[in-house]
Structures are given as C-alpha cells and as structure tokens.
Amino acid sequence: MELLVDTANLKDIATACEYFPIAGVTCNPSIVKKSANPDDFFAHVRKIREIIGKERTLHVQVVATDSDTMMKEAKALVENVDEDVYIKVPVTKEGLKTIIRLKKEGYNVTATGVYDTMQAYYALAAGADYIAIYANRMTTYGVDPNLLYQDVQNKIEREGLPTKLVAASFHTAGQLREAYTNGCEAITAPLDMMMATFGNENVNKAIENFTKDWESMYGEGATLLNAKR
User: Fold this and answer.
1) Residue 155's CATH number
2) Of 1, 27, 208, 217, which one's alpha carbon is 20 to 30 angstroms from that of 63?
3) What is the pLDDT of residue 174?
4) What are residue 188's DSSP bridge partners?
C-alpha cells in the first residue's frame, strides 16, 4: 500500500512528507504549471528530490507526443535529476512505443493517462512499473473506475506481475478510499485532498470531548505529563 502526493509545490511536498507516510511524488505538465510554475524545471525537480530523498519514488511526465522526442526527454530527466526517476508516459500509440523502448533500456516507467482496460493491459505487457488510472476523469465520461481497478489488479495478481496500480485524478476524498478498496496498491492525490480526511466533525468533536473531560479532572491545559491534582 502506497500513498503518493500529486504536486510540484515544494512546501506541499515537505508538509505531506511530515504528516503522512508518503511513498513518492507525482506530477504532470498541468500540475507543474498549477502548483509551481518554475523558472528552471530541472532545478525544481532536483529540489523535490532533495526534499523526498532517494527512498521515495519520483514520477515526472514527458511532454512530447512523438516517441523519439519522448526518449530524449527521458534521457534528459535522468541526466539532470537522477537515474531513479520514474518516467511518466501517456499510453497513446506513440507513448506505448516509448514505454517498450524505455523498459528495454532499463528505465523506470509509469504509464499514465489510462482510461481503458486495454490501455492498461498494453502497458502491463510492455513492462510498465506503475500504471496510473485517472479516476475522476473516467467518472466524468460515465465510466466506473472501480471496475477498471478490479480488472487490472486481478490481471496483475493472476499473472504475478510486478506492476503497481496507482489511482489518480480525484474529485472527492471518498474516491481515495474506493481506489484502495477496489484493489489499487497506490494512490496519488494533492495535499489538500489528503488533509480533507481530518475535517470530519465527528472526529473533531470526539477529540474535543476527550480534552474537556481530561481538563475537568486535572485543570486547563493538562496532559498526561501533569495528570496530578
């Protein structure tokens, strides 16, 4: 079970790593623009690596749409960041070709932009290390992502494949739970959506009552450290 943070914002990444068991960071061109908009992209990605360390995975997406240029971008990522970077490649015709080429050359690869079962199966056959399925975008088009999670995860387990299924592109915190429940080994979400879990008023009310009861015995501001009358 893995939890990744979907952002290029350095502050959000640091906060996520402090408060959550973060296994890695993911980003795509749109997320980079929205959350960071850096002057020097590679320098920014190196800062992300400094924050998360080598023990966490870093997934960065190519921008090109043809295979040859995707390969050059992958090489540039490795040369400018490190060889542990996971190259995110959309599962288009050119993208699938690129995934095959990258795996033959020993790159770490995350297949992304997956909305369809066959896209996922092609990526599995190509040897992708991770497959990112876009949950909310599927829902927008009237497709149940939970069925896709189940189909692909069952395929992975039946064939004993090392590929990890990662759900992405969420609209509600409930979709995070559904992804895990329906077989995804990993999810990636922005920090604010992770934090939404702690906005449950029932939880906050229970904690408030615990505090009031304790302070009624030992005084305002009392903790276990001064529980004595």
Assistant:
1) 3.20.20.70
2) 1
3) 87
4) 4
